[in-house]
Amino acid sequence: MENKSWHKEIDFHCTFGTWPFKKSLDITPSGFLYCGELFPLKTITRIRWGVDQKRGGPFPKYFYNAAFGSETREIIIKTRQKDFYEHLSQRFWTAVGRRLLGEMFAGLRKGQSYKFGEFSVNDEGISIMRGGLFKAPDTETYKWRDLKWGIVNGNLVFTASDFDDKLLTSASFLWTDNAHVLSVALALMQKSGQTERLSKACA
User: Is domain 2-97 in CATH 2.30.29.30, yes or no?
Assistant: First the structure.
C-alpha cells in the first residue's frame, strides 16, 4: 500500500514550451522520461531548483528553473509558470530527493564528504576552500556546533556562531546541485537538538 502511495505521489506527466519546440516530461517509478530519453531513478544523482530573477526595464522578470542529472548528463527545465514549477520541484524531491538524503546520511557515517560549490560537508562540519591568483589554496574547517545557517535570498548561508554577521560561505539553491538535500539534512539536525554529527539527524 505504501509503495502504491509513493507511485501516486511521484506520478507526473506534462508538456511545455511552444511549437515547434514543445517538450515532454514523464516521472514514474521507472524514471524520468524527458523527450523520449529515459533516466532511471537510480541514475539520477543531482537535483536543484530555484528562481532566476532577470532585470531589464522597470520590472524584473522571474524564471523558474528545475534541473536533474546523472553523472554525465544534465537537463534544465525553465518556465514562467510558478504553479508548474512548484508541482515539478515537489516531484523531484519525492522521486529523487528523499533517496539522495538517505544516501548522503549513509555516506557521511562511512566518512565520505560531499561538495557544494566552494565548501564540502562531512559528518562533523564543513570545510571551506579558499584561494586566489596570488595566494596558495587554504582550507578552513568548522564544526557544526560552531556554525549557524539559514536561507537568505535563495541561498543556504553559513556564519560562525560567535560572529553571525560575517558570511562564511553559501550555496545557491538555483545553481548548486543538491543544496536542497543538504538544507533538509540541516533542518533535521536542528530539530534533533544535537550538533555533533549530521548523520545522527536521521536516527
Answer: yes
